[in-house]
Amino acid sequence: MSPQDNYLATPSGLFFEDFTLDQELVHGVPRTITEGDSSLYVALTGSRFALNCAETVARAAGFYRTPVDNLLVFHIAFGKTVNDISLNAVANLGYAEVLFKTPVFAGDTLEVTSKVIGLKENSDGKTGIVYVHSVATNQYHQKVLCFKRWVMVHKKQGEVHLDTPIIPKMQAVIDNDEQLVPKNLDLKLWKEHYSDHQIKADDLNPGDILFHRDGITLNDSDHSMATRLYQNNARVHFDQHLMDNTAAGKRLVYGGHIISLCRALSYNGLGNGLWLGAIHGGTHANPSYAGDTIYCQSKILDVKQFNRRDDIALVRIQSLGIKNSMPDELPYLMREENGRKRYHDNLVLDLDYSVLMRR
Amino acid sequence: MSPQDNYLATPSGLFFEDFTLDQELVHGVPRTITEGDSSLYVALTGSRFALNCAETVARAAGFYRTPVDNLLVFHIAFGKTVNDISLNAVANLGYAEVLFKTPVFAGDTLEVTSKVIGLKENSDGKTGIVYVHSVATNQYHQKVLCFKRWVMVHKKQGEVHLDTPIIPKMQAVIDNDEQLVPKNLDLKLWKEHYSDHQIKADDLNPGDILFHRDGITLNDSDHSMATRLYQNNARVHFDQHLMDNTAAGKRLVYGGHIISLCRALSYNGLGNGLWLGAIHGGTHANPSYAGDTIYCQSKILDVKQFNRRDDIALVRIQSLGIKNSMPDELPYLMREENGRKRYHDNLVLDLDYSVLMRR
Amino acid sequence: MSPQDNYLATPSGLFFEDFTLDQELVHGVPRTITEGDSSLYVALTGSRFALNCAETVARAAGFYRTPVDNLLVFHIAFGKTVNDISLNAVANLGYAEVLFKTPVFAGDTLEVTSKVIGLKENSDGKTGIVYVHSVATNQYHQKVLCFKRWVMVHKKQGEVHLDTPIIPKMQAVIDNDEQLVPKNLDLKLWKEHYSDHQIKADDLNPGDILFHRDGITLNDSDHSMATRLYQNNARVHFDQHLMDNTAAGKRLVYGGHIISLCRALSYNGLGNGLWLGAIHGGTHANPSYAGDTIYCQSKILDVKQFNRRDDIALVRIQSLGIKNSMPDELPYLMREENGRKRYHDNLVLDLDYSVLMRR
């Protein structure tokens, strides 16, 4: 750096003071999803849901071709929001009302817009919470995916900014069942072996618990490849030199990768849960790092019929991601402590979502 | 786990007692192979055989488009069988009569069925050997690939099950040459540089040995990505928490990945061995783990003319995979000991196969 | 190895004595680039330039479909030359006149030819420098990419070979601006958000410096997957057993991977630098290994108008790749020492190139 050097500022993301209520952010880097992305998704997560794996199966189920895995769609849409919303995030606090509205096929191009729907300063004076509603659309301007999320974001200065917090209302559960079912989905021609002859919605009851047996160990290369594929540029996932100065000293695994691993693991037992229709809420209870082995256990929250159809039912599931222990190796997964939910240190994900399942 | 919890069983694969002679298993998760899968195959193995890399080359060789690498087809077909056949396997004991019958192109969808052709209890009372014949078909119901394999599988109980072992006959070598040559394959227009001006079938004689020079070091991320791409869900490849309790303490590399690496390494010297037509037999002599460097040496077993054609010959090859040593760094690769073949601890693969090679 | 074994030689690349002036080398393994390759490129590098990411954007910019990233084209073309030119290289000394002449689209097939344009023996008697001009063409025999490079190559014997060194002329800068602009490129319909509302060419002045903030840590699996994807078979990138005997004891990262990382990192700040038109020169100042974190800082060398067009300008940039330190953590990046440029040990890349940038 010599005296005559003229340093230009490079984008550093928005800070809490940069957000205003109803602000609209049109995110960068539109993205065409390809078969290459889907192959990588399988290679990185091990997902095996048949509807996303074979054109013959997709056609038998009413699609004209293989739909892209909804979680791949979610990660790519989420990735687009990071550069504006969460580059200066301390933490992703939660998701709600994640709704997959239109199937995505290879060749579709996604763009994402977010609107600020809430703002709240924290008492520490250094951070605030930003609530956004993000919408991904395809090249036909159809809404593909909507979701709300809230993140704790650094302030630039630490000065007071807002008098009254604005906290948006969020539905605990998306309960308009019509929204969850793709128009053409039809499982009447589904063959038993497509999904390994597994149990169906009619075999499930609220309260049933399934431990999905398989475990998957995270490698730095896997999770950082996945996160780069999603063009999510949060530095904590990639930059070890930066992370050397943190308490953990390691690159943080993108929480969405854990969601994908848990969904992929749930194939063992819930392989007939073919279509992820909505995520009602999600919490990354603890961080994950390379070397951690992820297991998943699911609890059936609800089984609902839909329009008297005898091919599909709506099943609401709570999936828990657990690291480095099978559930029976831990004294508890979560428990009440002074009226608050407390997660075991090895519990990494608490996800509440609905799938369409064969009856 | 609270008293009212209702744990449902999740699929745990078949045990020795679950198999019966002539039983037919229709495996799950049909799979459309895409160009994305082929790109990943190149990135994971380093394969360079020109017929699988370029549409111009494939057309010059009589195909209407680029055929998918036969080993990628094999791994995807094999992967489908794991969930039923070998989830409780102690070891994959061998392969025979692996025959590639119809070329596969991007867009083709594979389904796989296996038939139990043999069963044998082991004297330890805890395991048995299951012999299966697997057939992969495409969306036109054409047979794409057939193979036999035998695996040692755990018993559930350890009780006696079978009176008489049934051991199927298996051909040592697929000797119907017609079966090995794709109908349209024609190498008359092949250009020397396509395959780096390398030696041709007419330059080879039985007994010739080629050391393929290059080495490739295994990373955990590579082999587990490959194995997930193939949707092979054997836990030993992915779950470090599980493997912590084994003697080696490491995730086991899928044996098929070693086959692919050896085939890719053999390009150096045998780059004109364009079409892998059949695998006559294969043994995973020792396990491989991340950090191991794989080398390959091949011996020409046989060179045969086919139908008086002057563009191709059939070459039978024995390729040996060796870890962490070049062949001349070892006192022996395999030797006779008390009348039995004994492999050096660093020898990981002994593969007997036929390729179609330019004359 | 028994007495009757007949070892055949396998290809070992060319040595200095094998090269002659004007020699033409037609490289092996033609390659069709697919959408799968582009997905992998994003996953391995984190690149986000919108023109290469979305069909809607590419069409708005005058292309009939999404062009393949020029650096992916470069790596695949470069990879094809390795087997002949640089398998016995001590070091890649430099590049010049790298010019992207025709856009590449998924489905295009590349072949590469190189001509020897210079030869120079080194005084050590053991090595020499080979200068080559490589040309990649597509299936329509259009020139896609031309580049010159020079490498230090081992001699077979160490005997004297050449009387007079022949050192080709090379342009310091490709200055025919017509060559840098794809015929149909038109940024009049470009939308601000495509490239995250970043600065444009008119905001830049020679001497401006931008530090691109993000860092990316190399994993062995990432760089070796990238290098295998490019079918670059230089052993130093893959073979740990071989590298155990080197001073560093580690697999060397392919220098081109560092170029791609720096270009991808430069999106932060130079996201409107949509089309990489030429690389005027490049030096790999120091090696990189797994575990290193790469940062990038760029200096604007020149901003030029082109044909009075008000949508694009030509911007010449010097990007420096730096490992394990942000630029302000180092006392200097490069400096003059006794009249020679001396790089800091943490500086890994010095790249001089031109991009087409929005005005």
Automatic annotation (TrEMBL), chains A, B, C:
- InterPro entries, per the entry: HotDog_dom_sf (IPR029069), MC_hydratase (IPR048274), MCH/BMMD (IPR052342)
Q: Which domain of life is it from?
A: Bacteria
**A matching Pfam family:** MC_hydratase
CDD domains, sorted: FkbR2 (cd03451)
Q: State one molecular function term (GO).
A: lyase activity
Task: Return the protein name.
Answer: MaoC family dehydratase
Q: Which organism is it from?
A: Thalassotalea mangrovi
